[in-house]
Amino acid sequence: MTDPAVSNDSDLLIDPMPVANDVFTVDGLNVFYGDHHAVSEVDLTVKEREITAFIGPSGCGKSTVLRCFNRMNDLIDIARVDGTVRYHGVDLYDEAVDPVAVRRRIGMVFQKPNPFPKSIYDNVAYGPRVGGQKGNLDEVVEGSLRSAGLWDEVKDRLGESALGMSGGQQQRLCIARAIAVNPDVLLMDEPCSALDPIATGVIEELMKEIQSEYTIIIVTHNMQQAARVSDRTAFFTAEIDEHSGQRRGKLVEFDETGTIFSNPGDERTEAYVTGRFG
Questions:
Q1: Residue 188 to residue 161: CA distance in whole angstroms
Q2: How confident is the model at residue 14 (pLDDT cuts 50, 70, 90)?
Q3: Which of 61, 254, 111, 88 is closest to 185 using CA atoms?
Q4: How many domains does the chain have?
Q5: pLDDT band for position 1 (50/70/90)?
Q6: How many degrees, rounded to 5, is the angle at CA 188 between CA 238 and CA 85?
Q7: What is the CATH number of the domain that holds 197?
Q8: Which of 60, 100, 186, 273 is the most exposed place for a label (fewest CB within 10 A)?
Q9: Is residue 20 part of a domain?
Q10: What is the pLDDT of residues 176-203, one digit of tens each?
Q11: Residue 43 placed within a domain
């Protein structure tokens, strides 16, 4: 029988309708770059319409795990992913699943704002156009910019280059660009690390505002940010492999954010969130 969450057509699109409250279920996830075992045995579940934060020191595998959720690691020739990552019950790494279709449903915002060298309008309209959407895109562009809290700031200069925007505006434009293709999930990899505190506050407020529409996973080095915006937090650490001497990421603890920061179950988590290491 054909999996109802994978269509029979040539695009093998993932059905956006949730099977359950669990958006992602990760079991025994391991990631390798060539011979380097980068991340070891990750198990966690991401809930629908929640903000999940990944925290931990540099080199602990946070971004590597994040990229597994929309198969961005496929773009790295030497990367290999073992284990299971299920999205609404569908194995994302099944041969029948098209990674391009995955990325339409699971959008990504990167650490450094990366607007295209196009107009503000064309940046937002780009995804729908590539996806074959016909007709007038004005409503899509306006709706996406409104969702990203940008419309009032840019509505009179939509034809101007996006490269002339401030860093915080550019990052919100990238969020609008991701929203424009109607995703189910937004992945954010250190989205505020290149921004000043005011712009960071705007992005954090935006995340809380759009949480009712999207499941959000954010990688952040800023523990205060994780405490402010997330519902659940995963703490990763890096262990040194005794044979190779290389760092290997490991999930230490995953729980409600209040528990992670006030009553963690692992002493390594407590040491990190209290600033004793990391």
A1: 24
A2: low
A3: 88
A4: 1
A5: very low
A6: 65
A7: 3.40.50.300
A8: 100
A9: no
A10: 999 999 999 999 999 999 899 999 999 9
A11: yes
